[in-house]
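Posted in: Protein Modeling Q&A

I'm a second-year student putting together a small comparison for a lab meeting, and my supervisor asked me to include a predicted structure for Protein kinase domain-containing protein. I've never done this before, so apologies if this is the wrong subforum. The sequence is pasted below exactly as I got it from our records. If anyone can share the structure token output, I'd also love a short note on what stands out.
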Amino acid sequence: VKGPHGLHQCLVFPALGMTLANLRDLFEDRALEKTLLQRFLLFTVTALDLIHQAGMVHTAQYLSPNNILVGANDIVVTKVEQATPNNPSPRKVLADRTIHLSYAMPTSHNPPVVTDFGAARMGTSTMSNISPSNGLSDGPSTQELSGS
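Accepted answer (user: helix_wrangler)
Welcome! Here is the predicted structure, written out as tokens:
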């Protein structure tokens, strides 16, 4: 894409819904229902297994609920697209660019999606200078993910 500061490579992805963290806020005590939590965990573990089979490692210390998003409903995305020209999102206009506020997407029954691969690594080599975990950074527990 050509912009005022030169050419920029852009990655374009399908629209996604709210984060797991935002979804959790909709539940009493921020605790997901057991079946919903199980569904999120199954999809997340399956996604990580698939990327590992492809030779990729996410590399995050632990997956944050902010990096797992609910898949967006295509019908809702189409409605937002159609409504945007007549009802644009709030924006901040700067001298060299305009920053648009993202629309909040409603919940859907679409599968969750693991995001934030900015630090992901490809390859099969190991790093011998990495020490095994001392247990202090094993990531969030199931209780932390469910908010209880």
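A couple of things worth pointing out for your meeting: The first helix runs from residue 20 to 24. Confidence is low (pLDDT under 50) at residues 131-146.
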